[in-house]
Amino acid sequence: MIIKSDFLIIGTGVAGLSFALKASQMGTVSILAKRKACDTNTNLAQGGIAAVMGEDDLLEYHIRDTLDSGAGLCHLDAVKTVVESGPRMIEQLKLLGVPFTSQVDHPDLPELGREGGHSHRRIIHAKDMTGQAVQKVLGEKAFEDPNIKIFEKHQALDLIVTDAGARRAVGAWALDTATGELLAFMAKIVVLASGGSGKVYLYTTNPDGATGDGLAIAWRAGAQISNMEFVQFHPTCLFHPQVRNFLISEAVRGEGGRLIDQDGESIMKNHPQGDLACRDVVALAIDTVMKKSGVDNVFLDITHKPSDFIKDRFPKIYNTCLSLGIDITRQPIPVVPAAHYQCGGILVDINGRTTLNGLYAIGEVAATGLHGANRLASNSLLEALVMADRASISAGLETKGLKDLGENVSLSPWANGRLGTAPSEAVLITHSWDEIRRFMWNYVGLVRSDQRLLMAAKRLELVKNEIDDFFRNFEVDADLIEVRNIAVVADLIIQCATLRKESRGLHYSLTWPNRDDKNFLRDTVLSNPAPIILPERLSAR
Ligand code: SIN
Q: Which residue among 8, 68, 403, 472 has its CA within the 20 to 30 Å range from the CA of 169?
């Protein structure tokens, strides 16, 4: 079956939904969600949105903090554009009805939160459920909009790219995971807003769906990729045998939480910014303590704050921990670092345009140059909002005068294809998945070396060949699509990390422990030497 619209968006987080609500003023919109529309990283975001709203704050301060965190690799135009648009984006969300915490309703709570690397209080939040509040409002509006159709349980597989004249993305193949039907979604503009890739690592704060699909899809289609070596590890993921990906927001440290070791000693006491140093610094300090003393976790202690304040400011964290037997008003919280955010991604310009015609990328999947070598906390929802806004204007202009490009593409051999709803050899896929996540954690995690990267590359080569084999010979189902994507993302991280022979921001190498501005004050950019036009498995049918 072929489904046509003016805009096709892959992903239903803050970037995809904000783009959709703006693009629907200019044409018809299809959005693909591989699970439910609310199963996104946005929905889990606790901290908030950084924007200059405080009386003592200035745009210059936010720009400077972002540049400092990015360790020399931020693009000044992207930083300025995003930071300067922040207050306008917050006003738009307020008008749509997002219930940010305000002192009118909560006189005891700070309206603006603070997180690591920020010199001023500037995090707009809805207590510790900011992402959920934004997701709910944008999602409701998108479901109500007659020009937007959301296809849940539709998993994008690969882009449809014309090779007549200039290569151009004109749609995407997607699997209806409920029925196994293969669909062709054709559009004048395709937007990847599919989020990040935390599931490449054994421990992550991300939801199960964060398998780097958009990144892998763009890579296979020939779009350039940048800075994938910069994977941000959040210092404080809850350490608990039953719950693997629950974040303890940096806002807890913003309100005075202290990181302590098993003996109760402050971990960050010798750093000038203390517990509010940038994430790369804090995560590495925790990793060093854990490796030196051989312990499984450290602790985050907020017990010195009044119990009512903690319950009111952090209701989600308080209740989740309490349900696991940890009363955070009286006990320190066991925490470990975990993969949290992909700072690199699909290379885009300041309007979200990738290097492949017709293809835009916004949100975590994209590399705008805002984050450089380390993202400043709570700059990501902000970036997603600003880039969705800019991309919608640019894409809207681009569609004017474009005829329906889908007409020129022959889909006949594949358009009625069926893939699968269940794997024929699930154990093989699960094993490949576990193997990749484990060696990425051990060899390509917080601390790397040339030797570790080489070992990871060798292992990945074997697993990738097996996965390619499965893809050719097995029934293709949702898990196989994800593991195929994870393997591509792992490969891109290893390739980028291998090229950067220095330590900078989130990339720390034992072989190259120093920063080398002479040779590496630049982005890492990869181009696929052999992009595909059609998915190999499908073209073989
Ligand atoms: C947090 O709440 O610590 C996460 C915020 C972010 O990743 O920007």
A: 472
Residue 279 falls in the annotated catalytic set: yes
Spacing, Cα 249 to ligand 1 middle (Å): 6
Report yes or no on 206 lying in a domain.
no
- Decide whether any atom of ligand 1 lies within 6 Å of the 283 Cβ: no
Residue 488 and residue 472: Cα distance in Å, rounded? 16
End residue of a domain, out of 338, 358, 392: 338
How high is the pLDDT of residue 404? 66
Q: Where are the alpha helices (DSSP H) in 444-540?
A: 450-473, 478-499, 517-520, 536-539
How many domains would you assign to the chain? 2
* Residue 141 located in a structural domain: no
Distances (CA, A) of 295 to 16, 239, 253, 274: 40, 12, 22, 22
Encode pLDDT of 457-469 as tens digits: 999 999 999 998 8
| pTM score, whole prediction | 0.94
Print the domain residue range for 326: 237-338
| Last-in-domain residue among 288, 312, 338 | 338
458 assigned to some structural domain:
yes
251 lines ligand 1 (CB under 6 A): yes
State whether 429 and 334 are in the same domain. Answer: no
Residues 15-53: pLDDT tens digits?
A: 999 999 999 999 999 999 999 999 999 999 998 999 999
Atom of ligand 1 nearest to the CA of 378: 8
**pLDDT, averaged across the chain:** 92
Relative to the CA of 128, which ligand 1 atom is closest?
Answer: 2
Closest CA to 221 of 183, 174, 168: 168
Pocket test for ligand 1, best of 122, 234, 340 (most atoms within 8 A of CB): 234
CATH number of the domain where residue 329 is located: 3.90.700.10
* Alpha helices (H) in 269-352, listed in sequence order: 279-293, 307-313, 315-323
CA–CA separation, 474 and 155 (whole Å) = 17
Q: What is the pLDDT of residue 422?
A: 55
Between the CA of 360 and the centroid of ligand 1 the distance, in Å, is 25
Where residue 453 sits, what CATH number does that domain have? 1.20.58.100
Q: Is 523 in the pocket of ligand 1 (CB under 6 A)?
A: no
